[in-house]
Structure formats: C-alpha cells, structure tokens
C-alpha cells in the first residue's frame, strides 16, 4: 500500500472520466487506521497534560528557562557544514551542572560557583570522523547580573588558557577574549547582558586560516542570535506556556505506565525549529525540511512531535527524519500503520541511544519514536508498540 501512495504522490497527471488529461499535482492522502486494533503493549494512548506540580521547584523553573536558550543557539553547520553529528545537548540549573557529565574541565568550577551560575545550555557537534575530527562547542550561561556574567566570562578565559596560549584579535568583536594554543583549537568567551558565552572550534590538523575564520564566524552568528534572547525575572518564567498549543500533550509519555504530568527529563520540552535542530542527526537536511514543510513547533517527550503546515508537509518532513546515513537501512513498519517509515541505524543516535526509529504521520503532525536495537540489530517489539501508542494518541488529540 505504501507503493500505491508513493505512486500517487509522484503522479503529475490526473485522468478525468471523460478521457481528457488535466495537469495538476495530487494531494497525499492517509490510509485509514482502526486504532482499536493497534497493539500498544503496556503503553498508554491517552493524552497526558504536561504541567508543573502545584508548587514549582526552583530547579524545575531554572531547567525550563535553560531549555529556552537552545532556541537562541546557532546551528553548527552554519559555521562548518561538515560539523553535523550531535555529541551532547545539555541544560543546567546550577553551578554543578556542567561538571556532572562532565563537559567542562574542573578548572572552571570556580568561575561557575563564584559567579553563581543560574541556568545554562551546552551543545557539542563533531563531523563524525574518528581520524580527523572537527568539532564546535557552544554554551550560553545565565548569571545573576551583567557584571557577574562579564566576570565569569573573563574567569572562564583565564581558566582555559595555558602558558602557550596566544591571543586572537576578532575584528568585529574586540571585547571578546579569544585565544589558541596551536591553531588546532581556538576558544572565545564573552558576555552579553546576563549571559556568558563560550565558543570553541577545533580540527585535527592545525590551520590558522580555517580555525580563525570559523571561530570568528561562530562568534558573529551567536552574538547576533543571542540579541533575541530576553532575561525574564524568575517569577515570570512560568508565564510562558510549558505546552504551547498542546504539542507536548500530543507526544506520548515514556516509560510505560508513567503517571506524572511533568518530568524534567534532560531533553523533554517544547521548542521552535531552531532549538529542535540541535537534537537532529542530519541538521542541514532536517533544517531545510522543517522550513519547507512549514514546521513551527516541536515537542520532545517520550515521542517527538512536529507540527507542520499540512499533510503534504508532514510526509515531506517524515522523509527527512528517516533519511539513511551510511550503513543505515530501512526496516518494515508496524502492522496496521502503512504510512509509518522505520529505519535501523548502524550506530545509535547520540541523544537517546536509539538504534531503531519510526516516523509516524497523522494529519499535519509527524511523530518520531525509537527503541534500542536488539542483539545483531533485531527489532525490539517495543518500537512497534510505541509507534502504535503514539499514532493512537495523535488520533485522540484531534
């Protein structure tokens, strides 16, 4: 049946009953699904609200604020097109956060604690190469005041310098502290309002021209984008909806049997496409598809739900989200869901460690679910159960 739908999508001529040909492009259609016949295992298909408990914890409020910063952080491929493989996306609600993984070296504990880091976000990508890797690290960190952010950025630069470091002058930003040890990696720190910014670009082989050009480009783009980021009072953070337009309610909760309405999971939350792109395997391809499909909102929960312009946009985005990388392969979709596309990844994706992914289409929405691959790449049955539950939940949310 999938072949039939694809044939309809690719057709350029509709034949009328009288035998004349009428030029046009057919609109895609969904196959009807009886949700009562779907095997959802122990997963719930009931929409579950996404909201805070009666009394909001400070850590929850700061985490919500930190996740908002992702919407104002640049896409790594805008700096270096081949730096497209996600390594980490993290958010923090106190000065200990960056050291729990850790992503920051221990010598930065002082600047974070002394200046009272309140919230922050961190994104790291590489080019996926183990032989000659390139990488870009971005971090936006909120402090209590402009002065604290400036002091923190200066202390971060001091902590990261080595005796061999040499200063780099960035023509457009003389206020930025930029330096390198050997032109294989260059780092920049600065502040803008309450925010300190840390940017590091590196490659395996030293190259002064490339490293300096890309560091300067990253600084230009990030400081420009950061101008759109407001600094709300903490008591005002919750004035922004946690579940804009019910996007989080449309994503199924996980694990099975979950009853809490709000979970501060590391990557749960609602984002604009600019924030959502940091989690994607193929950022350039998905960024283009998000724009062309009219996607304006993404909700990350147990399932990841994308709101597109219309059904045609949903099918377009689905193709991008299930694009195959080297050695990835298409696998059969779940029974009774012919519009679903599923793939097996040769290497699990970095954010949730899923080796199996399905993208479901229902109306203008695309939802992605995943599961670990079994031994020798076998299909875990939970993948199909999650896909079924997610489809049913979307159907019930209309």
Write the layout of secondary structure elements.
Elements lengths: L1 H9 L2 E3 L5 E3 L34 H12 L15 E8 L16 H6 L4 E8 L7 E9 L3 H15 L5 E2 L9 E4 L4 E8 L2 E9 L4 H19 L42 E3 L1 H4 L6 H10 L4 E4 L3 E4 L3 H11 L7 E3 L9 E4 L11 E7 L2 E7 L9 H16 L2
Antiparallel strand pairs: 1-2, 3-4, 4-5, 5-9, 6-7, 7-8, 8-9, 10-11, 11-12, 12-16, 13-14, 14-15, 15-16
Total strands: the figure is 16
Total tally of structural domains = 2
Secondary-structure-based class equals alpha+beta
Task: Summarize the amount of helix as a percent range.
Answer: 25-40%
The H-and-E topology, N to C, reads as HEEHEHEEHEEEEHEHHEEHEEEEH
Q: Counting H and I runs of at least 4 residues, what is the number of helices?
A: 9
β content, as a range?
15-25%
Strand order of the largest sheet: 3-4-5-9-8-7-6
Oligomer: single chain
Major sheet characteristics: 7 strands, antiparallel
Radius of gyration: 23 Å
Pfam families: DUF7373, DUF7373_C
Keywords: Signal
Signal peptide: 1-23
Domain DUF7373: 53-241, 265-397
